[in-house]
Amino acid sequence: MLVKMVMTFVVGLLGGCLAKRLKMPAAFMTGSMIAVALFSILTNQSAMPGSLKVFAQIVSGAYIGQQVSKADLLNFPKLSKLIVLLLSFFTVNMFAMGLLFHYLFSIDLVTALLSCMPGGIMDVSLISIDMGAQSEIVATMQLARLVGILLILPAWIQFLLKRLGKDDVSSVNKTKEKMQKIHPFGTNRNWTNDSLILIIAGIGGLLGVYLEIPVGALIFSLIFSSLLKIVKNTAQLNSSIRYLAQILAGSIIGSTFTHHSVQQMSQLIVPALLLLGSYLIINVLFGFIVYKKGDLDLKSALFASSPAGATDISLIAGELGGDMPKIAAIQISRTIYTIVVLPNLVRWFVGWIS
Length: 354
Known about the structure:
By secondary structure, this protein is mostly helical. It has helices spanning 2-21, 27-43, 53-65, 70-105, 109-115, 121-130, 135-163, 191-210, 216-232, 239-254, 259-265, 269-293, 298-304, 310-320, 324-340, 342-353. The chain has one domain (55-244, 262-353). The two termini are 38 Å apart. 49% of the residues are buried.
């Protein structure tokens, strides 16, 4: 068993490194999942215990928690109505598309709903393992959404701005917030900073496991990490730790792939396109409503309602002239909502409808 685990991890590591060189989105997660899936299908020798998901969840929660700053907290009350509107759209879309996939494409209900969650591929995939869904289907759908949004988004937003005659940068808030003069507790190269974050997030994650709360390790590690960030102003985790967690998560999911699951993948092309289309509709609807109300400029509203990685969207928005602090605050709210609230809504809904 140990030999199989080491082999699986090495395959996942190589796959992640290759995906990174090819500049794939969520490279280490995606690359490790694909590589281990191929290894599992071809050799039937893959092995990665699901218990390692707790470590991956703790690291993921720690990483997300470190994105919440005091500035974000100040922005949240001002953006509360926008955030509630967007999260309502995403929630309705998740249930509508999930039920459609369940009844039209015969995907089990939990898997269908989780496939439509507007979260990160790693976070939602880990949640799917915790909730007993078909994680390979969820991961594939999440990957399709992520890749589709990141590939389409810049051209899509430019197209909309030109069609609506709003392709000017005068309305965009170009002022950049000055760097906080408060020095972080540590730096990305400081092992004490990373150790402190992982210890605090680990305590929270283990508390979540002990309380037997659904996805508790992820939720509580995120909460504890956020509190640490706000109190101590810690720096973001070293990226190599995040990559390790991604490789483990990708390897866990990849090891669940079989010949049967590969046959199922061909049936996901239409659902993936439908899901992507539904998110683009939400993008236009939310952007237009918010712009008309004068709460955000149109470009920033479109970026804020794009369901890809919070970091990825914020960086793209910064390059193309969006109001980055507000976009980041809305994106972080979406990420936290996806992890903390939506899994419990799915669990309640499935129990109620059964």
